[in-house]
């Protein structure tokens, strides 16, 4: 199994398959390694499912976070409506894995991809933010003899943000174009508030709130204009992992999954990072840590399920150690790794590491500044908290699953494989 850097040297398929039975100690695995904590993942799945049920929303988690068939299935088993993806290739993976509902949170304007999906449109929903996108989809699917209409959500953007029609007038023009297409079905509205802010300051929260209210106004305007197909269900969707409480507050009142108000309306969050959470960006901004609105029960939080482990390979000067994990192993786009604990050479358990900070990453090394009197030596192993799951998983074809990363003696109980092409 040399293709998996997460397993001990010399391990073969038989040893990997036997991990649930043998449960070897994590300290016997090579570094660098990133682990996934089984107990924390289970906690996060249950916590998010309970929160969504109380808030009156459904969940279509963004699968690009992990690109793991096993974790996607666990999210579905916990009640997820479907899986969100970002690219045609990711959509093809999801469809190939038999995901019952796939939401492509992007415009699908590549003719080759449209033709490839033409016979499997019933499980796919896509976005559009321009009449041109609608034109391409209509022409391509008509030419491909598509078997049924493709569900399309009108994406609303905001000035200076990412994709999405700018303003209600432009979005309504897209909705009218979709409604007029013989091979498309106007299926709702979509947006992404996470591109508008990057913190939980009052100004950021106010901007997110205003955008979500405009998204709801777009849905109401489409309904008032009679553009939705009569009696057809619609979707309202927004919500990354930072502001999903505001999404629920604004959109959940429109939810009517049984069609009690005359039309079936589903409100979908697309939060993806909750499944592993982190010790950096999402720890600082998650609604469950900063309050989470009236749906948050006292003391309920997500737990960090991903950790990096690296060996001190050099202590070249006072206050500086180098470890054997770098950009090829650990995320760095939303903050550098966070030293949390150190397992001394020959010891069984890690102890807290106070005052240490990562200052830089090379390809295969991290620079860790430590207090000059810190008990850190060559051969010790440092456990790192990570920041941003989305750029953790894509560095590993398989992650070592431990029973509990914070246990005195974590044991490896399996691998979670990823698929990033």
Automatic annotation (TrEMBL):
* SUPFAM superfamilies from the UniProt entry: PLP-binding barrel
Which Pfam families does the annotation name? D-ser_dehydrat
Superkingdom, taxonomy of origin:
Bacteria
Q: Per the database record, which ranges form the D-serine dehydratase-like domain?
A: 305-403
Please give the InterPro entries that the UniProt record associates with this protein: D-amino_acid_metab_enzyme (IPR051466), D-ser_dehydrat-like_dom (IPR026956), D-ser_dehydrat-like_sf (IPR042208), PLP-binding_barrel (IPR029066)
What this protein is called in its record is D-serine deaminase-like pyridoxal phosphate-dependent protein
Origin species: Leifsonia shinshuensis
What is the phylogenetic placement of the source species in the record?
Bacteria, Bacillati, Actinomycetota, Actinomycetes, Micrococcales
């Amino acid at each position: 199994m040399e293709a998996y850097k997460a397993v001990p040297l010399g391990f073969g398929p038989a040893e990997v398959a036997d991990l649930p039975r043998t449960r070897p100690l994590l300290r016997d695995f090579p570094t660098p390694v990133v682990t996934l904590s089984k107990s924390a993942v289970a906690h996060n799945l249950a916590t998010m499912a309970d929160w969504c049920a109380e808030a009156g929303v459904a969940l279509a988690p963004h699968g690009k976070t992990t690109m793991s068939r096993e974790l996607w299935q666990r999210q579905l088993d916990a009640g997820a409506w479907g899986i969100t993806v970002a690219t045609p290739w990711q959509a093809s993976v999801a469809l190939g894995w038999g995901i019952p509902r796939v939401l492509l949170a992007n415009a699908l304007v590549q003719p080759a991809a449209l033709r490839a999906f033409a016979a499997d449109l019933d499980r796919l929903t896509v976005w559009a933010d321009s009449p041109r996108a609608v034109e391409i989809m209509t022409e391509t699917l008509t030419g491909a003899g598509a078997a049924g209409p493709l569900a399309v959500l009108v994406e609303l953007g905001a000035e200076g943000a990412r994709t999405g029609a700018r303003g209600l007038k432009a979005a309504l023009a897209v909705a009218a174009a979709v409604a007029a297409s013989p091979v498309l079905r106007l299926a709702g509205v979509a947006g992404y508030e996470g591109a508008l802010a990057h913190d939980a300051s009052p100004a950021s929260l106010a901007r997110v709130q205003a955008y979500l209210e405009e998204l709801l106004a777009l849905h109401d305007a489409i309904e008032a204009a009679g553009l939705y197909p009569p009696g057809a269900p619609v979707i309202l969707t927004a919500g990354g992992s930072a502001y999903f409480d505001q999404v629920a507050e604004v959109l959940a009142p429109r939810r009517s999954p049984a069609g009690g108000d005359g039309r079936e309306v589903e409100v979908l969050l697309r939060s993806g990072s909750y499944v592993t959470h982190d010790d950096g960006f999402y720890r600082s901004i998650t609604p469950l840590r900063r309050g989470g609105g009236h749906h948050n029960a006292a003391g309920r939080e997500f737990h960090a399920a991903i950790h990096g482990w690296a060996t001190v390979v050099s202590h070249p000067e006072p206050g500086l150690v180098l470890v054997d994990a770098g950009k090829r192993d650990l995320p760095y786009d939303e903050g550098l790794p966070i030293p949390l604990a150190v397992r001394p050479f020959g010891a069984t358990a890690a102890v807290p590491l106070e005052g240490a900070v990562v200052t830089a990453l090379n390809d295969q090394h991290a620079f860790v500044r430590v207090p000059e009197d810190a008990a850190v030596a060559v051969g010790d192993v440092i456990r790192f908290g990570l920041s941003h799951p989305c750029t953790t998983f894509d560095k590993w074809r398989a992650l070592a699953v431990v029973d509990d990363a914070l246990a005195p003696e974590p044991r490896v109980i399996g691998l979670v494989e990823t698929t990033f092409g």
